[in-house]
Design a protein that fits this description.
Purple Acid Phosphatase, chain A, domain 2, 7-stranded antiparallel sheet, alpha+beta, 5 helices, 6-stranded mixed sheet, Jelly Rolls, 2 domains, single chain
């Protein structure tokens, strides 16, 4: 098989599978039939084939008041566009979506056509459900249930109960169509994410149950971020190319492997090229080779663009100043003739941890927002800069915590193409000792480079 694409495989025992979504197809001869076929060709080249496929919604264009037309789209999608897949050998599991389950009629057609397990929340049988494969639990939630209010409304009691019932599962994945956290700055309760009144409890349930990842789609992008140790992975590149930001997002599928050491994935474009990848979780930092960075400008511990699977970790500790709102530098990377390409520091009266990334001369920089450290307070933080995670790869946690959280951002890209300058500055900006000087009584910064296996 000369054009085979090697699949990531579990190390020892585990699971390997494919995730893709948002084809919005089902109409013969339409644009999305062609774009969806280009992604399917890549899935078909994977070797070995996936054990199962996850499709978090919007298989067909849908959004019609005609139930027979909706059924015809589903027939075309299942019997023509997906005819290549032996669903007996490779199960295909779906979530509901805004193109497929937008009212009670379309929910009824979804149940009728797909015949998914009927172990879901009361009133949602065949819409929400769970699947157990050995040590893997997958819970499929309905993020637009008509019985609760429609798009953006999701039931959480059943989710909590299912996760508690299967607490012995080594691996837990939860799938739904709508993200919980905004993707690339596209934000709005009920239409772009689940409703704000559900999001905090929904994520608390995932964290308490030690869920590995929430898999979603809806926003036409590939994106990964982490919140309190749980990944949110958004993959919505199975066909709707004309609405994707050109030059930033692309048609894709995600092939993943899950084992006792964690989750790995590769994001494949329509040529079969690996465009993004991830290994999670990050390894413990206590065994890393840390180097304390002196105050002022000094030689950097690394320079240039990081190779894949490389993380820069920082330890930040000190005490913040009282009554200072002006920007204060923790770490920056001076570059001749331009504003620092990367500036990490505190801003505002709440001493908010902020990373500012300037990619191009004369263009506005991009911001990543972390926690408020407060005035006159001691702090002890770990920072991880993980380019493989794109905009979600600027991570923080309090020292002693094991769970990472992505900084808030509205950018579609992160540090993946950032070229690190040959000098770094600690405690002051690129303009020297008096430029955005750190005003607190104490600051210590250490760094290390971690290369993931």
């Amino acid at each position: 098989m000369h054009d085979a694409i090697p699949s990531l495989l579990p190390r020892n025992s585990g699971h390997q599978f494919v995730i893709y979504a948002d084809a919005c197809s089902g109409v013969a001869g339409a644009l999305h039939e062609r774009t969806f076929a280009s992604v399917n060709q890549v899935v078909r080249r994977l070797h070995p084939a996936p054990e199962f496929i996850l499709f978090p919604g919007d298989e067909i264009i849908g959004l019609t008041a005609d139930a027979d037309a909706l059924r015809a789209q589903w027939r075309h999608w299942l019997e023509v566009e997906m005819a290549w897949l032996d669903r007996g050998a490779v199960p295909l599991w779906h979530t509901t979506g805004n193109h497929t389950t937008y009212d009670a009629m379309s929910e009824a057609v979804f149940r009728e056509v797909l015949k998914l397990p009927r172990n879901g929340a009361p009133g949602q049988e065949g819409l929400s459900y769970w699947v157990r494969r050995d040590d893997l639990l997958m819970v499929f939630v309905h993020t637009l249930w008509s019985g609760l209010g429609g798009e953006g409304h999701v039931e959480t009691d059943w989710l909590q109960a299912v996760l508690a019932q299967h607490k012995d599962a080594r691996h837990k994945l939860v799938l739904g169509h709508h993200p919980v956290y905004p993707i690339n700055g596209y934000s709005g309760s009920y239409q772009r994410e689940i409703g704000h009144e559900y999001s905090a409890r929904f994520w608390d349930i995932l964290v308490r149950a030690d869920v590995t990842a929430y898999l979603c789609s809806h926003i036409l992008a590939f994106d990964v971020q982490v919140h309190r140790g749980v990944l949110q992975i958004c993959t919505a590149g199975a066909g709707t190319a004309h609405r994707m930001p050109e030059g930033v997002e692309y048609l894709h599928c995600v092939q993943a492997a899950l084992d006792q050491r964690g989750l790995r994935y590769q994001v494949l474009d329509t040529e079969g090229a690996v465009r993004e990848r991830l290994a999670w979780p990050l390894p413990p930092l206590d065994q890393a080779a840390w180097a304390k960075l002196p105050r002022g400008i000094s030689s950097a511990p690394l320079s240039g663009t990081l190779a894949p699977a490389t993380v820069i970790a920082l330890k930040l500790s000190g005490r913040t100043a009282a009554g200072v709102a002006a920007p204060q530098t923790l770490l920056c990377t001076p570059a001749p003739g331009m504003i620092a390409p990367l500036w990490l520091g505190l801003r505002g009266p709440n001493q908010t941890l902020t990373l500012i990334l300037g990619r191009e001369r004369g263009r506005s920089p991009h911001y990543w927002i972390g926690p408020d450290l407060g005035a006159g307070s001691d702090f002890d933080l770990d920072i991880a800069l993980y380019p493989d995670m794109g905009p979600g790869g600027l991570l923080w946690r309090y020292r002693g915590d094991v769970s990472w959280t992505s900084c808030t951002a509205i950018s579609a890209t992160g540090l993946e193409r950032f070229a690190w300058p040959v000098t770094w500055s600690v405690g002051c900006g690129e303009g020297g000792p008096d430029d955005r000087q750190y005003a607190g009584p104490r600051l210590e910064v250490s760094a290390c480079v971690i290369r993931l296996s």
